Amino acid sequence: MKLIYKYRLKPSKLQQIELLQWLGSCRFLYNVCLEQRIHVWQSFRKSLTNIDQNYELKEAKKTEGFEWLQKVHSQVLQDVTKRVQHSYQNFFRGSGYPKWAKKHSYNSFTFSQVGSLKIHNKRIKLPKLGWFRFIQHRNFEGKVKQIHVIKEGNHWYICIVCENVPKKQFMGKNQAIGIDFGVTYLATLSDGTHLKNPKFFAKYQDALRLKSRKLARQTLKSNSWIKTKRQLNKLHAKIARCRKDHLHKKSHFIALNFRHIAMEDLKLKNMTKSAKGDAENHGKNVAQKSGLNRSLLDSGIGNFRTMIAYKTEFYGNQSVRVNPAYSSQKCSCCGFTSKENRKTQSVFQCISCTFAENADVNAAKNILSSGSELWSSTCAIGQSVGLDAPKLALG
After folding, report:
1. Which are the contacts of 370, defined by CB distance < 8 A and separation ≥ 6?
2. C or N: which end of the chain has fewer Cβ atoms within 10 Å?
3. Residue 180 catalytic?
4. Residue 142 lies in a domain
5. Which residue of the set 59, 64, 264, 278 is catalytic?
């Protein structure tokens, strides 16, 4: 497997200045490469590649006035031209035209090839930058392929990309589980377990509102405006870290305890569309839909599903996504499907067999049943989903 290990860097003030200088050099080079491509296309109707620009990069380092490019590692500069190439490739696939790199948007640089990584006494050595203190909360495994240095808010992080990471041995029971995602609970398992949804954005919503109101009343780009802006960004970064930490812990719990995992394949992009409509056709219940969209995005269901998928693969388990259609209306006991089965948001009672259950637990059982049918048809393991079987395509 290929995994990314993320650690917190603890640079000194002088090291922070040097890191910021490297980011500034990369941002300048990105804009120059983009400008050159635009000019060549408009003048000669020709397209440049990152290989062409890497060749000219050697000459640029020798040009008077650009000698400061030599202070930055050559791999870091070559990665910048590769980023411009990827931006154009995404544009040709249907994405937007490449934009200019701004000061606060260009926040990382990459060492594309790393032979050996030196770590000693809670310090790590970066090529041409020297030794940095960092928080090594866990050891990384496999062969080091790349190193990313990222600035997030006021903090610096290092991401170590490792290849050929050995998979862990699954120590849990050969047990199958179905997962129903939601807003009230982050996830409900078919065994009746409810995973709490902390709703971090809602928790700090009042503080965000006060900071945003204060920012709107201050003079744009003034010292007080900049100070409030930093406080607001810091609060948003804290919310994101708390949410990510919670999702990692819960996804690790699921991957560590269940051999076969069936998840509902929610179309989150469609679910979180705005209900405003257009000038001719106005939307209905816009405020309610906006609040629901905010709650769905706050729970981080998409990231949670992705974490479960790669962690189950890491432990040699199996995860599949199933169509969630009618899972909340179908009785997990007799299979009868009707809207009237769903009495309330939390209560399910079948009008055919009078089976009563928590609505989310009933939906999770239906998802497990659909996953079992998929495992049966794909791996020929029948109803005994606990048996070891060939690995399925991950969701």
Report:
1. 178, 262, 322, 323, 327
2. N
3. yes
4. yes
5. 264
